[in-house]
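Researcher: Last one for today. Full complex below.
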Amino acid sequence: MDKRTFLKLSGMAGAGLVVAPWLGCQPSGDDKTLRSGEKPDSGAGDVWGAEAFALPALSFGMDALEPAIDAETMAIHHGKHHAGYVRKLNAAIEGRAKGIDDNLITLLKGVDSADEALRNNGGGHFNHTLYWEVLTPGGPSEPQGALAAHIVSDLGGIDALKAAFAKAGSQQFGSGWAWLSLDDAGQLFVSSTPNQDNPLMTQCVERSGTPILGMDVWEHAYYLNYQNSRTDYIQAFLGLVNWESVALRFQGAMGQVG
Ligand code: MN
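Model: Here's the assembly. Have a good evening.
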């Protein structure tokens, strides 16, 4: 398959029609992402720039989730931790050839487990962006529609999902995340990952898929309010889930399932 075909596939993937094959991301200066016989193109847009990714603004105030998640935790988590992942992600990929890996999702799907800068900081940016978007002080309290039906058929119902999700978060040793994801066969599953890994990272997880709900269980997500009581934070988190946002992500992921 030549580069033109790859680019075409990549563009179609961006339109949600085809999942392009992943060829691997390479460290800066390595030209293995180029197809044989081709030379690097120095034109703008073919390599990652210095500010490829930006810290997203929150859709609610820092104090909107109180008392479950306090404003100081939110401010530090968003303005320091997430901002740091964005800054280090940009530094890690600046100057790299984009190839077909022209967005964060394709970068993470193919990230080499040894590429710690991209794995940790790209994961950190993706994971926190998802985290802010699935939290709400005023969303519906339970899943609806197709998502609710799949939660019943795949996981045994919302109570079983919440129990499995809470268990995944509480049993993740040290820092990490709990996930609800959709696999390539269209099955929902619950998992956990260490550090800033996520289920997109096929080379880093036992079961890969598209995460539609993510819960940060790093101590920085809860320690000011809950100290060592991670289980109390988990129960508070489950009361803040924006199931409308999760359902939209579920619909998008189902659209990608072949
Ligand atoms: Mn965090």
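The chain is about 45% helix and 10% strand. Residues 1-43 have pLDDT under 50 and may be disordered.
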